[in-house]
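Summary for the steering committee. One of the milestones for this cycle was to obtain a three-dimensional model of the protein with heme C bound, which we needed before selecting residues for the alanine scan. The sequence and ligand used are listed below.
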Amino acid sequence: MTDNPKIDPTTGTETTGHSWDGIEELNTPLPRWWLWTFYATIVWGVIYTILYPAWPMVSGATAGLLGYSTRAEVAAEIERVDLSNADLIDSLVTVDLAVLRDNEDLHRFAVQAGRSVFAANCSQCHGAGAGGVVASGYPNLLDDDWLWGGTMDDIAYTVRHGIRNEEDPDARFSEMPPFDWMEDAELDATAHFVRSLSDLDHNATAAAKGATLYADNCSACHGEKGLGNREIGAPNLADAIWLRGDSQEAILRQLKAPRMGVMPPWQARLGEAEVRAVTAYVYGLGGGEAAVGDAEAAPAE
Ligand code: HEC
Ligand code: HEC
Protein backbone atom coordinates (compact mmCIF):
# COMPACT_ATOMS: atom_id res chain seq x y z
CA MET A 1 0.00 0.00 0.00
CA THR A 2 1.20 3.41 -0.76
CA ASP A 3 -0.18 6.51 0.85
CA ASN A 4 -0.10 8.21 -2.43
CA PRO A 5 -1.82 5.97 -4.97
CA LYS A 6 -0.85 6.61 -8.53
CA ILE A 7 -3.18 5.67 -11.36
CA ASP A 8 -1.77 4.07 -14.48
CA PRO A 9 -3.13 6.22 -17.31
CA THR A 10 -3.47 3.39 -19.88
CA THR A 11 -5.46 0.85 -17.77
CA GLY A 12 -6.88 3.18 -15.14
CA THR A 13 -5.58 0.77 -12.45
CA GLU A 14 -3.73 1.78 -9.31
CA THR A 15 0.03 1.02 -9.34
CA THR A 16 2.16 -0.31 -6.49
CA GLY A 17 4.63 2.48 -6.92
CA HIS A 18 7.38 0.04 -7.95
CA SER A 19 9.09 0.93 -11.15
CA TRP A 20 11.86 -0.83 -13.08
CA ASP A 21 13.43 1.11 -15.89
CA GLY A 22 10.19 3.01 -16.17
CA ILE A 23 7.97 -0.08 -16.25
CA GLU A 24 5.46 0.18 -13.43
CA GLU A 25 3.74 -2.64 -11.52
CA LEU A 26 -0.07 -2.57 -11.49
CA ASN A 27 -1.90 -3.39 -8.25
CA THR A 28 -4.77 -5.39 -9.80
CA PRO A 29 -7.13 -6.70 -7.08
CA LEU A 30 -7.85 -10.49 -7.01
CA PRO A 31 -11.19 -11.42 -8.52
CA ARG A 32 -13.91 -11.68 -5.83
CA TRP A 33 -14.88 -15.26 -6.73
CA TRP A 34 -11.26 -16.37 -6.35
CA LEU A 35 -10.89 -14.68 -3.02
CA TRP A 36 -14.08 -16.19 -1.57
CA THR A 37 -13.13 -19.65 -2.79
CA PHE A 38 -9.79 -19.20 -1.08
CA TYR A 39 -11.45 -18.21 2.24
CA ALA A 40 -13.81 -21.15 1.92
CA THR A 41 -10.94 -23.62 1.61
CA ILE A 42 -9.38 -22.20 4.79
CA VAL A 43 -12.65 -22.59 6.68
CA TRP A 44 -13.04 -26.13 5.28
CA GLY A 45 -9.51 -27.00 6.32
CA VAL A 46 -10.10 -25.82 9.91
CA ILE A 47 -13.38 -27.72 10.22
CA TYR A 48 -11.77 -30.85 8.78
CA THR A 49 -8.92 -30.87 11.29
CA ILE A 50 -11.45 -30.54 14.11
CA LEU A 51 -13.67 -33.40 12.92
CA TYR A 52 -11.09 -35.88 11.56
CA PRO A 53 -7.70 -37.17 12.74
CA ALA A 54 -5.21 -34.50 11.67
CA TRP A 55 -2.45 -33.01 13.78
CA PRO A 56 0.54 -35.27 14.47
CA MET A 57 1.25 -35.50 18.19
CA VAL A 58 4.00 -37.29 20.13
CA SER A 59 2.23 -40.64 19.85
CA GLY A 60 -0.40 -40.78 17.12
CA ALA A 61 -2.46 -37.88 15.83
CA THR A 62 -5.39 -35.86 17.19
CA ALA A 63 -8.41 -38.15 16.95
CA GLY A 64 -11.00 -35.69 15.64
CA LEU A 65 -14.52 -35.20 17.03
CA LEU A 66 -16.08 -37.83 14.76
CA GLY A 67 -13.81 -40.59 16.06
CA TYR A 68 -13.19 -41.80 12.50
CA SER A 69 -10.30 -44.23 11.86
CA THR A 70 -9.34 -46.07 8.69
CA ARG A 71 -8.11 -48.96 10.80
CA ALA A 72 -11.48 -49.32 12.52
CA GLU A 73 -13.15 -49.18 9.12
CA VAL A 74 -11.01 -52.07 7.82
CA ALA A 75 -11.69 -54.07 11.00
CA ALA A 76 -15.42 -53.50 10.58
CA GLU A 77 -15.22 -54.57 6.95
CA ILE A 78 -13.38 -57.77 7.90
CA GLU A 79 -15.94 -58.50 10.58
CA ARG A 80 -18.74 -57.95 8.09
CA VAL A 81 -17.19 -60.46 5.64
CA ASP A 82 -16.56 -62.97 8.45
CA LEU A 83 -20.15 -62.64 9.59
CA SER A 84 -21.50 -63.11 6.10
CA ASN A 85 -19.28 -66.24 5.77
CA ALA A 86 -20.08 -67.54 9.27
CA ASP A 87 -22.94 -69.69 8.01
CA LEU A 88 -20.81 -71.15 5.22
CA ILE A 89 -17.94 -71.88 7.62
CA ASP A 90 -20.35 -73.55 10.07
CA SER A 91 -21.75 -75.73 7.30
CA LEU A 92 -18.30 -76.54 5.96
CA VAL A 93 -17.02 -77.92 9.27
CA THR A 94 -20.07 -80.14 9.72
CA VAL A 95 -20.91 -81.30 6.20
CA ASP A 96 -20.21 -84.91 5.23
CA LEU A 97 -17.20 -84.46 2.93
CA ALA A 98 -18.45 -87.13 0.55
CA VAL A 99 -21.45 -84.95 -0.38
CA LEU A 100 -19.83 -81.51 -0.18
CA ARG A 101 -19.80 -81.08 -3.93
CA ASP A 102 -23.58 -81.60 -4.07
CA ASN A 103 -23.99 -78.26 -2.32
CA GLU A 104 -22.97 -75.86 -5.05
CA ASP A 105 -22.57 -72.67 -3.00
CA LEU A 106 -20.74 -74.35 -0.16
CA HIS A 107 -18.50 -76.24 -2.56
CA ARG A 108 -17.59 -73.07 -4.48
CA PHE A 109 -16.82 -71.28 -1.21
CA ALA A 110 -14.63 -74.18 -0.02
CA VAL A 111 -12.64 -74.39 -3.25
CA GLN A 112 -12.01 -70.62 -3.29
CA ALA A 113 -10.85 -70.61 0.31
CA GLY A 114 -8.84 -73.78 -0.28
CA ARG A 115 -6.97 -72.14 -3.14
CA SER A 116 -5.53 -69.50 -0.78
CA VAL A 117 -4.80 -72.07 1.91
CA PHE A 118 -2.88 -74.09 -0.67
CA ALA A 119 -0.92 -71.10 -1.95
CA ALA A 120 0.10 -70.15 1.58
CA ASN A 121 0.87 -73.59 3.04
CA CYS A 122 1.32 -76.28 0.43
CA SER A 123 2.82 -74.71 -2.68
CA GLN A 124 6.36 -74.54 -1.27
CA CYS A 125 6.51 -78.34 -1.52
CA HIS A 126 3.86 -79.33 -4.06
CA GLY A 127 4.48 -76.37 -6.39
CA ALA A 128 2.26 -73.34 -7.04
CA GLY A 129 0.32 -75.31 -9.63
CA ALA A 130 0.38 -78.49 -7.46
CA GLY A 131 2.50 -80.25 -10.10
CA GLY A 132 4.93 -81.63 -7.53
CA VAL A 133 8.72 -81.95 -7.74
CA VAL A 134 10.04 -85.38 -8.82
CA ALA A 135 13.63 -84.69 -7.74
CA SER A 136 12.47 -84.10 -4.16
CA GLY A 137 9.70 -86.73 -4.01
CA TYR A 138 6.91 -84.14 -3.66
CA PRO A 139 4.00 -85.78 -5.43
CA ASN A 140 2.00 -84.24 -8.23
CA LEU A 141 -1.53 -83.62 -6.93
CA LEU A 142 -3.06 -82.97 -10.35
CA ASP A 143 -3.18 -86.55 -11.56
CA ASP A 144 -5.33 -89.46 -10.46
CA ASP A 145 -2.38 -91.55 -9.27
CA TRP A 146 -2.62 -91.55 -5.49
CA LEU A 147 -0.12 -92.90 -3.01
CA TRP A 148 -2.54 -92.86 -0.10
CA GLY A 149 -5.93 -92.42 -1.76
CA GLY A 150 -7.90 -89.76 -3.62
CA THR A 151 -11.37 -89.65 -2.07
CA MET A 152 -12.32 -86.55 -0.08
CA ASP A 153 -11.89 -88.50 3.14
CA ASP A 154 -8.51 -89.93 2.10
CA ILE A 155 -7.17 -86.50 1.17
CA ALA A 156 -8.57 -84.91 4.33
CA TYR A 157 -6.85 -87.58 6.43
CA THR A 158 -3.52 -87.02 4.69
CA VAL A 159 -3.81 -83.25 5.21
CA ARG A 160 -4.91 -83.53 8.86
CA HIS A 161 -2.25 -85.94 10.04
CA GLY A 162 0.49 -85.68 7.42
CA ILE A 163 2.89 -88.44 6.45
CA ARG A 164 5.80 -89.94 8.43
CA ASN A 165 6.13 -86.91 10.68
CA GLU A 166 6.96 -87.05 14.36
CA GLU A 167 4.40 -84.53 15.53
CA ASP A 168 1.22 -86.50 14.86
CA PRO A 169 0.89 -90.07 16.22
CA ASP A 170 -1.85 -90.69 13.64
CA ALA A 171 0.32 -89.64 10.70
CA ARG A 172 0.29 -92.04 7.75
CA PHE A 173 3.29 -94.30 8.06
CA SER A 174 5.22 -97.02 6.24
CA GLU A 175 8.84 -97.75 5.51
CA MET A 176 10.50 -99.39 2.53
CA PRO A 177 13.47 -101.36 3.87
CA PRO A 178 16.88 -100.98 2.22
CA PHE A 179 17.94 -103.83 -0.06
CA ASP A 180 21.64 -103.12 0.27
CA TRP A 181 22.14 -106.77 1.25
CA MET A 182 21.40 -107.83 -2.34
CA GLU A 183 24.29 -108.35 -4.69
CA ASP A 184 24.77 -105.75 -7.40
CA ALA A 185 23.63 -108.16 -10.11
CA GLU A 186 20.46 -108.91 -8.14
CA LEU A 187 19.70 -105.25 -7.60
CA ASP A 188 20.25 -104.59 -11.27
CA ALA A 189 17.99 -107.49 -12.26
CA THR A 190 15.24 -106.30 -9.90
CA ALA A 191 15.44 -102.79 -11.31
CA HIS A 192 15.17 -104.16 -14.87
CA PHE A 193 12.08 -106.08 -13.80
CA VAL A 194 10.58 -102.91 -12.25
CA ARG A 195 11.15 -101.06 -15.53
CA SER A 196 9.53 -103.93 -17.46
CA LEU A 197 6.35 -103.45 -15.41
CA SER A 198 5.64 -100.19 -17.19
CA ASP A 199 7.12 -101.19 -20.56
CA LEU A 200 10.23 -99.07 -20.22
CA ASP A 201 13.42 -100.18 -22.01
CA HIS A 202 14.91 -103.11 -20.09
CA ASN A 203 17.14 -106.15 -20.45
CA ALA A 204 14.71 -109.09 -20.77
CA THR A 205 17.10 -111.74 -19.41
CA ALA A 206 17.90 -109.66 -16.35
CA ALA A 207 14.22 -108.82 -15.84
CA ALA A 208 13.32 -112.52 -15.88
CA LYS A 209 15.81 -113.10 -13.06
CA GLY A 210 14.52 -110.01 -11.28
CA ALA A 211 10.94 -111.31 -11.38
CA THR A 212 11.67 -113.89 -8.66
CA LEU A 213 13.52 -111.39 -6.51
CA TYR A 214 10.62 -108.99 -6.91
CA ALA A 215 8.03 -111.61 -5.98
CA ASP A 216 9.99 -112.52 -2.86
CA ASN A 217 10.94 -109.06 -1.66
CA CYS A 218 8.69 -106.42 -3.11
CA SER A 219 5.29 -107.80 -4.00
CA ALA A 220 4.09 -107.74 -0.39
CA CYS A 221 4.09 -103.94 -0.57
CA HIS A 222 4.00 -103.03 -4.25
CA GLY A 223 1.70 -105.87 -5.30
CA GLU A 224 2.32 -108.88 -7.54
CA LYS A 225 1.80 -106.84 -10.68
CA GLY A 226 3.35 -103.70 -9.20
CA LEU A 227 0.05 -101.87 -8.83
CA GLY A 228 1.01 -100.51 -5.43
CA ASN A 229 -0.86 -100.46 -2.13
CA ARG A 230 -2.56 -97.39 -0.75
CA GLU A 231 -2.85 -98.82 2.73
CA ILE A 232 0.88 -98.21 3.10
CA GLY A 233 1.47 -95.56 0.46
CA ALA A 234 3.48 -97.94 -1.73
CA PRO A 235 3.57 -96.41 -5.20
CA ASN A 236 2.22 -98.08 -8.30
CA LEU A 237 5.33 -99.22 -10.20
CA ALA A 238 3.44 -100.24 -13.34
CA ASP A 239 2.30 -96.81 -14.51
CA ALA A 240 4.04 -93.83 -16.10
CA ILE A 241 3.92 -91.68 -12.95
CA TRP A 242 6.98 -91.78 -10.72
CA LEU A 243 7.57 -90.22 -7.34
CA ARG A 244 11.34 -90.53 -7.48
CA GLY A 245 12.20 -91.08 -11.14
CA ASP A 246 11.97 -93.99 -13.60
CA SER A 247 15.61 -94.33 -14.68
CA GLN A 248 17.58 -97.46 -13.82
CA GLU A 249 19.78 -95.26 -11.57
CA ALA A 250 16.83 -93.73 -9.75
CA ILE A 251 15.34 -97.17 -9.08
CA LEU A 252 18.69 -98.56 -7.88
CA ARG A 253 19.12 -95.57 -5.59
CA GLN A 254 15.68 -96.21 -4.05
CA LEU A 255 16.52 -99.91 -3.55
CA LYS A 256 19.87 -99.34 -1.86
CA ALA A 257 18.89 -96.41 0.34
CA PRO A 258 15.13 -95.82 0.15
CA ARG A 259 14.00 -92.28 0.59
CA MET A 260 10.71 -91.75 2.36
CA GLY A 261 8.56 -88.67 1.88
CA VAL A 262 7.64 -86.63 4.96
CA MET A 263 4.72 -84.24 5.16
CA PRO A 264 3.76 -82.20 8.24
CA PRO A 265 0.30 -82.50 9.86
CA TRP A 266 -2.04 -79.54 9.30
CA GLN A 267 -4.97 -80.13 11.65
CA ALA A 268 -3.59 -77.99 14.47
CA ARG A 269 -2.10 -75.34 12.20
CA LEU A 270 -5.09 -74.78 9.92
CA GLY A 271 -8.16 -75.85 11.89
CA GLU A 272 -11.08 -77.90 10.58
CA ALA A 273 -12.57 -75.36 8.15
CA GLU A 274 -9.30 -74.75 6.32
CA VAL A 275 -8.38 -78.45 6.25
CA ARG A 276 -11.71 -79.16 4.57
CA ALA A 277 -11.39 -76.20 2.22
CA VAL A 278 -7.93 -77.22 1.00
CA THR A 279 -9.16 -80.82 0.66
CA ALA A 280 -11.96 -79.66 -1.63
CA TYR A 281 -9.43 -77.62 -3.62
CA VAL A 282 -6.96 -80.53 -4.05
CA TYR A 283 -9.80 -82.91 -4.85
CA GLY A 284 -10.99 -80.60 -7.59
CA LEU A 285 -7.57 -80.31 -9.21
CA GLY A 286 -8.36 -83.23 -11.45
CA GLY A 287 -7.62 -86.48 -9.67
CA GLY A 288 -10.43 -86.61 -7.10
CA GLU A 289 -11.99 -90.03 -6.69
CA ALA A 290 -15.54 -90.88 -5.76
CA ALA A 291 -15.91 -92.62 -2.41
CA VAL A 292 -16.38 -96.39 -2.52
CA GLY A 293 -20.06 -97.13 -3.10
CA ASP A 294 -20.63 -93.69 -4.59
CA ALA A 295 -22.14 -94.42 -7.98
CA GLU A 296 -21.41 -90.95 -9.31
CA ALA A 297 -18.06 -90.50 -11.01
CA ALA A 298 -15.58 -87.93 -9.75
CA PRO A 299 -16.24 -84.42 -11.12
CA ALA A 300 -14.60 -83.42 -14.36
CA GLU A 301 -13.44 -80.03 -13.02
C1 HEC B 1 7.25 -79.97 3.64
C2 HEC B 1 6.71 -80.35 2.37
C3 HEC B 1 5.20 -80.51 2.25
C4 HEC B 1 4.22 -79.60 2.53
C5 HEC B 1 4.38 -78.20 3.10
C6 HEC B 1 2.98 -80.20 2.15
N1 HEC B 1 3.20 -81.46 1.67
FE1 HEC B 1 1.80 -82.73 0.96
N2 HEC B 1 3.21 -84.16 0.69
C7 HEC B 1 4.58 -83.98 0.88
C8 HEC B 1 5.26 -85.22 0.57
C9 HEC B 1 6.76 -85.45 0.64
C10 HEC B 1 4.27 -86.15 0.20
C11 HEC B 1 4.49 -87.58 -0.25
C12 HEC B 1 4.80 -88.44 0.91
C13 HEC B 1 5.02 -89.88 0.47
O1 HEC B 1 6.04 -90.13 -0.16
O2 HEC B 1 4.16 -90.72 0.78
C14 HEC B 1 2.99 -85.45 0.28
C15 HEC B 1 1.78 -86.02 -0.02
C16 HEC B 1 0.57 -85.34 -0.05
C17 HEC B 1 -0.70 -85.92 -0.40
C18 HEC B 1 -0.93 -87.39 -0.73
C19 HEC B 1 -0.78 -87.60 -2.22
C20 HEC B 1 -1.11 -89.01 -2.62
O3 HEC B 1 -0.72 -89.35 -3.74
O4 HEC B 1 -1.75 -89.74 -1.86
C21 HEC B 1 -1.64 -84.92 -0.36
C22 HEC B 1 -3.12 -85.05 -0.65
C23 HEC B 1 -0.95 -83.72 0.05
N3 HEC B 1 0.37 -84.01 0.22
C24 HEC B 1 -1.56 -82.50 0.23
C25 HEC B 1 -0.93 -81.42 0.83
C26 HEC B 1 -1.62 -80.21 1.20
C27 HEC B 1 -3.09 -79.92 0.94
C28 HEC B 1 -0.70 -79.40 1.81
C29 HEC B 1 -0.92 -78.04 2.43
C30 HEC B 1 -1.90 -77.95 3.48
C31 HEC B 1 0.56 -80.11 1.79
N4 HEC B 1 0.38 -81.32 1.19
C32 HEC B 1 1.75 -79.58 2.28
C33 HEC B 1 5.19 -82.84 1.30
C34 HEC B 1 4.54 -81.68 1.71
C1 HEC C 1 7.50 -102.43 3.38
C2 HEC C 1 6.97 -102.05 2.09
C3 HEC C 1 7.88 -101.98 0.90
C4 HEC C 1 8.70 -102.95 0.38
C5 HEC C 1 8.93 -104.36 0.92
C6 HEC C 1 9.28 -102.40 -0.81
N1 HEC C 1 8.85 -101.13 -1.01
FE1 HEC C 1 9.35 -99.93 -2.55
N2 HEC C 1 8.33 -98.40 -1.69
C7 HEC C 1 7.61 -98.49 -0.54
C8 HEC C 1 7.10 -97.18 -0.21
C9 HEC C 1 6.23 -96.83 0.99
C10 HEC C 1 7.59 -96.31 -1.20
C11 HEC C 1 7.34 -94.79 -1.29
C12 HEC C 1 8.50 -94.07 -0.67
C13 HEC C 1 8.32 -92.58 -0.67
O1 HEC C 1 7.55 -92.08 0.09
O2 HEC C 1 8.96 -91.96 -1.49
C14 HEC C 1 8.35 -97.10 -2.12
C15 HEC C 1 8.95 -96.59 -3.27
C16 HEC C 1 9.56 -97.39 -4.23
C17 HEC C 1 10.03 -96.89 -5.49
C18 HEC C 1 9.92 -95.47 -6.02
C19 HEC C 1 8.67 -95.40 -6.87
C20 HEC C 1 8.45 -94.10 -7.61
O3 HEC C 1 7.30 -93.87 -8.03
O4 HEC C 1 9.40 -93.34 -7.81
C21 HEC C 1 10.54 -97.97 -6.16
C22 HEC C 1 11.14 -97.97 -7.53
C23 HEC C 1 10.39 -99.11 -5.28
N3 HEC C 1 9.79 -98.72 -4.12
C24 HEC C 1 10.80 -100.38 -5.61
C25 HEC C 1 10.80 -101.44 -4.71
C26 HEC C 1 11.38 -102.72 -4.99
C27 HEC C 1 12.00 -103.12 -6.31
C28 HEC C 1 11.23 -103.47 -3.87
C29 HEC C 1 11.75 -104.85 -3.60
C30 HEC C 1 13.13 -105.08 -3.81
C31 HEC C 1 10.52 -102.66 -2.90
N4 HEC C 1 10.29 -101.43 -3.44
C32 HEC C 1 10.14 -103.09 -1.64
C33 HEC C 1 7.35 -99.63 0.20
C34 HEC C 1 8.01 -100.83 0.03
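Key point for the committee: Residues 137, 174, 176-177, 179, 190, 194, 214, 217-218, 220-222, 232-235, 237, 242-245, 251, 254-255, 259-261 surround heme C (ligand 2) (CB under 6 Å).
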